[in-house]
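TA notes. Do not distribute before section.
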Amino acid sequence: MKIFNVILSGGVGSRLWPLSRKQNPKQFLKLFSGKSLFELTAERNSSVVNEIIVVGNTDHIGLSRQLLQDISLPQTFITETQPRNTAAAIAFAAFAVDSEDILIITPSDHLIQNQESYDQAIKEAIDLAQRDFLVTFGVVPSKPETGYGYIEYEGKDVLSFREKPNTETAQEFLDRGTFLWNSGMFCFKAGVLLNELKNWQPEVYERCLDAWKISENKVIDSTASLRIPSISIDYAVMERSKKIKVIPAHFRWNDLGSFESLYDYLRSVGHNVDENGNMIIGTDIFTAFVGMKNCMFVHTDDAILILQKEKSQDVKKIYNQLEKYQSTLR
């Protein structure tokens, strides 16, 4: 049996536009003491796994190879030619290993602090995975966050999965103390996951298998990929299976999915803010905020974004408009 860290790196990070772009999304931005979230993810898991599997798209797989040059573990790269969501991405990784091998599934764009607590959570997850459970990681919430899904739990048992709530519901979840943030991290045997996928989503399983069989050099055939239903692993398996366990994790976790979360991180490491909580990112040009509070000024070579940080979830709408019109700014 081997333990693999499967790093999912196909996201665009549209809520961090204009920093995050289609050709250079947030997981590859070197914003964290000169390193990217992608590199930090690989480093974080390197002490507990035997090998790394990266599942990424055609645009980024070369960059992934480059960033992992200093990691001494064996590495496998699976190239998705068409985005088909996380169920397919994880299935491809499971097909690439033996059925008894354990997969630790981690997105490539999460910031995790407190390595000791993280290692303890991973150890607990591996123990459960060896007993044929599908394990998800739930982060103990620190605030009523509306940008995350939630897991209702008791001990290590999952009672329900909840969609991203409104502010009132998020506060209720926090007050009740029986809800965790859904981190999007998982741990399970490859064979157990594939059996559950086959049971709950047989079409997804069969189409993924067909595409995998005709892939060359672990590059997934484009035409076969388009036949795979696009569905997340949460909807396909985790919210249906009877084999789910959750690890309530106490490490500091942030998916850095919005400028509000990036703001919180940068402020915590000493990035400058003015007396009204305004922050500048990306330029040394003198910039002044007049009559504004908790705003962000984000500068790149070809775009400027000015936003109220509490509205940071709406940045995705700008990206979607640029995508609609095939803009070179996306």
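Switch to the second chain here.
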Amino acid sequence: METVKTRDARPFPVSETDRNAIRAQLDRMLADPLFKNSRRFPNFLRYVVEHTLDGNPEALKERTLGVEVFGRQPNYDTNADPVVRATAGEIRKRIAQYYHSQEHHAEIQIDLSPGSYVPEFGPPEPHSSPPASSPNSIALDPLPSPALHKHVPVWRRKPIYLAIGVLAGLLVAGFWFKPWLPRSALDRFWMPVLESPNSVLLCVGQRSFMALSQEPRQPINDDIQHISSARKDNAERPVTLGELYYLGSQNVALHDAQTLGRLAGLLQSKAKPFRILGENSASFADLREGPVVLVGAFDNGWTLRLTVPMRFSFERDGRKLRIRDRQNPARKEFTVDTDIPYMNLTEDYAIISRVLEPTTERVIVVAGGLMGYGTIAAGEFLTDPSYLASAVKQAPANWERKNMQFLIATKVINGISGPPRLVEQYFW
């Protein structure tokens, strides 16, 4: 008789009727919001379940899955492109969330153990009331006879001990984490980022020019004067160590740095690992390793590139910087003219996005303004619970599971940005 490994490592008979029941359970799971709002998760889970039921678990290797499920080239680098591992990790968490719900306790168990891409199947939880019998149901295994008692796992022989242990664990977890408290809008916004098994990449914009002249009202800098003169005499020579300090690729704008600090502090407070790269140093492979937070707009090429298909994006019109609305391209009100004296600026605008980006297949968060004042306002919006709580009052149901963009504005007074103000929001 053909068997498939189950959750407790006992052979589980799989007849054609059982296979149909498992497929029906798979369809039930994939119709749940935990899975149906993703393209990757259903494709992956259906592929591994079907191949296991067809008796081909040996085909479920990382490279094979990368090629067959995600369309990678046969010789792709699995270390540089961990799409299979990352997807499997997300699926394991969603499976746990699915069966954690009381309404799913009486259903057939489909699991994906850590370190393996071969799913395991089992009957409903032992303490659940069995569902009404049907041609597609899998019967519960009978308890073993006393003669085999010593070979039965402790959790099968002592269910009361297991229940007590689980209850004690829940009480401890409840003391520390207070699960009865509702999640804030801020937590729900960041949930896909924080629940990812991978660390977060904070990708900050960088200037692409070298400072060769003095800033107004600043004391004379001998280094800049020397660099300006030396490079005019020989612009083709290698960059010196002294010049490297003034290269734009080595520096971050103060506004971006302030926003970066806010976002890094938020992630640290949630015990979420992160790393920081400048836009010039971040490759496409880096963006595919896990969730990404992009800081800055016109100084961050990744922000400009990845927001193009979205409703709100950034565009340059000569010396004017503008937020473009794909649904109404004629709108021009969200514009900053960079030729005006900087102390005359009274309003700046920013885009905040959180999307599952189809190119990288990762969650992307964008915080970027037309000027630095908008970027600071975006950072405040993304780290202060009150702003998001107010913004989502009119949001659709289950908004935290959708892609979203917020268009915000901020008053600028004497070169200082004010609090963020929500102008428009969009979910899809």
